[in-house]
Amino acid sequence: MIDTPPAVELHVHVEGTLEPELITELAARNGIALPYRDIEDLRARYAFHDLADFLALYYANMAVLRTADDFAAMTRAYLRRAAAGGVRHVELFVDPQAHLVRGVPLAAVVDGVAGALADDAPGLGITTGLIACFLRDRPPAEAVDVLRALLAADAPLLGIGLDSAEVGHPPGGFAEVFALAAEAGLHRVAHAGEEGPAAYVTEALDVLGVERIDHGIRSLDDPELVDRLVRDAVPLTVCPLSNVRLRCTPDLRDHPLATMLHRGLRVSVHSDDPAYFGGYVDDNHRAVAAALGLTRDDQARLAHHAVDAAFVSAERAAELH
Ligand code: ADE
Ligand code: ZN
């Protein structure tokens, strides 16, 4: 059992924190008829075959998010849960395109999420940053347009990321939006090697210039890539309960986290979409420590890696360590 609670959450999608109770509450508020009988019926659908199967429900449930208040309510609920789990710094992903395609204005998304972060996080003792992710199964030119709109609106962004359906959507196509983000002084991360091959991790580093890899568990398939990730101390934000629920790994007891850690990789533990995968970052830490028999030293290293991987000042890092 861990005695130090996790301090830093670097891989969590705000839309993946939308709990069934809040889905039904927002649906009622917005007069939206849900295609589920009740919360139990909704929860019964949380048995996923793969990433695509999950993403279909994840995007469908976003229908209840219409106004800035809805996005703020979701973000506030997440912050409260994160604080209760010991989180003191969070870098939160948001998927603007998933809302724009439904006709929700960009301002509702940004004002709602960023407003709640600014208003609520300080009182909970949490520092935050917002990372806008682009959907890799939509056109790269659309990502460029959306980033330009975010920059024009002065959205308070820490960085950009790349997510959604991975296989068949290699990162290289998104070079332009990542170059634009670099020019704008934004941090850059990308999902790679979750369901997709190790080659996508290499491509995300070489073509997109990312500073962190989200997931990256398939990196182990390529020993040369592993050597490079160790040598360059590239952070990998691993989400064990997500990997089991999306069948990227058959069982938590077979999860590659321990192998990755002992091979010298800068892995840390995070939650991905906690409302869907059975646990927040503290739950992930407890579950993986028990299933893999992690030592106190292993757990301390995981916690240290998360702080080292965070996009924070040296002063804040020292407080978090
Ligand atoms: N969007 C939300 N969760 C995701 C995941 N696990 N992989 C890719 N895209 C996502
Ligand atoms: Zn993710």
Characterise the protein shown here.
The protein is α/β, with parallel strands linked by helices and 321 residues long. It has a single domain (8-310), classed as Metal-dependent hydrolases (TIM Barrel). It has 16 helices and 8 strands. It has helices spanning 20-29, 39-43, 51-61, 68-84, 96-100, 106-120, 140-152, 175-183, 198-206, 223-231, 240-245, 257-262, 274-277, 281-292, 296-309, 314-320, and strands at 8-13, 89-94, 127-135, 159-163, 187-192, 212-215, 235-238, 266-269. Strands 1-2-3-4-5-6-7-8 form an 8-stranded parallel beta sheet. Helix 10 links the parallel strand 6 and strand 7 (235-238). Helix 4 packs parallel to helix 6 (106-120). It is globular and about 50 Å long. Bound molecules: adenine and zinc ion (ZN). Adenine (ADE) is lined by residues 13, 16, 51, 58, 163-164, 191, 194, 242, 272-273. Zinc ion binds next to strand 1.
Write the layout of secondary structure elements.
Elements: E1 8-13, H1 20-29, H2 39-43, H3 51-61, H4 68-84, E2 89-94, H5 96-100, H6 106-120, E3 127-135, H7 140-152, E4 159-163, H8 175-183, E5 187-192, H9 198-206, E6 212-215, H10 223-231, E7 235-238, H11 240-245, H12 257-262, E8 266-269, H13 274-277, H14 281-292, H15 296-309, H16 314-320
Parallel strand pairs: 1-2, 2-3, 3-4, 4-5, 5-6, 6-7, 7-8
Helix pairs in contact: 4-6, 7-8
Domain Adenosine deaminase: 6-321
Catalytic activity: adenine + H2O + H(+) = hypoxanthine + NH4(+)
Pfam family, one: A_deaminase
